[in-house]
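To make the argument concrete, we let one protein speak, a sequence paired with a row of structure tokens, as a model reads it:
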Amino acid sequence: MRNFIQPGNTLTLPAPADVLSGAGVLIGSIFGVANGDAVSGEPVDLDVVGVFELPKISALAIAIGDKVYWQAAEAAVSKTASGNTYIGVAVSAAANPSAKVQIRLNGSF
């Protein structure tokens, strides 16, 4: 097949702002987790599939299997769909209050 480019599990895109390794990054409707640090405009490798531990809204309980969304203003996982970007499902429970939750990225946009 001559038109195949890559599996697409990791995408190299321009960083929308300064990015730290392990941070959630939203570019349009593409969400991924940064593989390394990058300054704004420079290439950053983003994992768009896999399981990652990400910050969440502290005052929020999340159950295994809950759909989760990226709340860009807080740079954190939320369960609120309105105004946020769907990023995957929780694969661990997270109590209220707690700082992080493990999620499986959906890999689609």
Notes: The chain has one domain: 10-106. Residues 10-106 form one domain. Residues 26 and 96 are 25 Å apart (CA to CA).
